[in-house]
Amino acid sequence: MITAGIDMGAKYVKVVILQDGTVKGKAIVLMGFDPLEAASACMKEAAEKAGIDPGTIDHITATGAGRKAAPNANSDITDVGAAAKGMVHVKEGVHTVIDVGAEEGRAIKIDAEGKVIDFAVNEKCAAGAGAFAESMSRALEVSLEEFGKLSLQSDKSIPMNAQCAVFAESEVVSLVHAKTPKRDISRAVHDAIASRIVSMVRRVGINNDIALIGGVSHNPGFVDAIQRSLETDLIVPEEPDYVSALGAAIVAGERNK
Amino acid sequence: MNENKKEFWRWKEYNWHDENKDPKSADIISAGVDVGSVSSQAVILLDGELYAYSNMRTGSDSPNSAKNAMNWALENTGLTIDDLHYTVGTGYGRVNVPFSDRAITEIACHARGGNLMYGNTVRTILDMGGQDCKAILCDEKGKVKNFLMNDKCAAGTGRGMEVFADLLAIPIEEVGEMSLDVEEEPPPVSSTCVVFAKSEASSLLREGWSKKKVLAAYCSAMAHRVVSLLERVGVEKDFAITGGIAKNAGVVKRLEKELNVTALKSKYDTQIAGAFGAALFARTLTEKQRKKASA
Amino acid sequence: MKANYGYMDGSGDFFITIDTDKCIECEHHACVSACPVGMFEIIVDDYDDEVVAIKEEYRKKVKYDCGPCKPTSERPPLPCVEACTPGAVSHSW
Fold first, then answer.
1. How many CB pairs under 8 A join A and C?
2. Does the pTM exceed 0.85?
3. Does residue B130 contact residue B37 with C-beta atoms inside 8 Å?
4. Nearest to C71 among A123, A164, A203 (CB)
5. pLDDT for C17-74, tens place per residue?
6. Cα separation of A75 and A188, whole Å?
7. Cβ contact, residue pair A122, C61, below 8 Å
């Protein structure tokens, strides 16, 4: 049996193809202007890597914010459900999944099978999401990648007043004018987002092991900030971008039976 | 090239004083200074009547901004800060006004100022400032009955509008009129968050929307958002809008339509309500002080 | 007076309302010590009344600071609301 999961995120489309439970191919494509085109291109690329014809896939399950628009999907599943399912497959023993992307964040409490028990969401406001860090890195004129690394070099905690990304930009600019080192500003920004994410995690309860997925898990400054705030280590999967697409592909397998 | 570097958000600063009034003949010269996060205003009253005011951009430190605004209001009046009998500071930087006698919150000052500027029938005052939005219900004496202030989020504030003016490279003062110049009202942008609305607007432009249409979509989203904020305190007639956004017809007209009320007009500048209220408080406090001294 | 402290952002309305007409009658202001993060304080407001308010530094993040008192399931009564005997404190979310 061949199944596929397609994750229609805000910025990227991700596809994972499974054959009898084993990953055969995967791909990631920038969303761009045309979601349909990006989705088709991503599916084609993953199928090529898997060495199959896309037409032979038995069941496709879509997830992500744009899941209803996924072409040729047989079913869909929420972001929360897909992330939970994918994460237990990647690592056993995970009971809390923190999923933070560019535009939203979620904390999900799951059981051993990857079933969702409870979840809390932060959305529609850039304050608790990756977009906040992106805005601040632009204000500091450093790349997002460098921005995360910079924060690890700081051992100073400067509180940030502004909660809104728009206001925080002016705050960052005045910190720069006050000759505050960029590394300290970077840490302040990461700590600010981390504290918002952690308060969301506290709402569902902190149950070890805790995994972090989504775009921001690539950012070491962010991982460090959340770990300090939670006072516990996080599990970051090797390929965090594919966890939800993998979860959707597993669900596709269950639904095709 | 330089055109691209233009600061489209930057508005003009100004001052004014009534040449027909003689400050020397006044019994009480009271003043209010409203140090906001974006702009600062100073108002000087002669026995409770408006004599002079100024509106400037707030600089990096509050004490200087307060002083600059006050000195600019006093320009060519023959008065100096030392001639003021009582000064009340208000706004975000109110505790940092070195020459003030007392600090009073901008909520109380707006209610008091609105009561004079729009008449004592005014019950709901919506102040749309640079970095906050306030909804105030008040009684016939200008006393606050219910209020809320939102300074956490840039949506619904002047700063949010500035981000859009910059994105579309349109001078901030022209945004309102331009947004009304559309054949058909487009649906509002769906994101409330300014950061997300900005990326939404960028993709609308790429889809071929005109700048005017994008502005219309943003102004109507802003109006809608402010309406839901107002609903928390409840809108009672008469209704007035103060602050910089009160000068943006694109937001005001859409707001009036959604609320089904017409905002009161005033002969005074909408941005001086807070400082005006502070100066009125200052007048009352001078009288109290004199009574106490003579007792 | 109804004083609403908090904010509204893309994700919703987050206000803690203090009805000062009720608050003014209270002698012990038990809410101040009931809040686990210490958000409440006693102030003299613009009309010279002694009432409780939410401290400035918490006003922009009540959603986050109130988080621990508001678990997603099995929610107990809020300590601040329970402690307020005159019934002056309420939350919008």
1. 40
2. yes
3. yes
4. A203
5. 999 999 999 999 999 999 999 999 999 999 999 999 999 999 999 999 999 999 998 8
6. 42
7. no
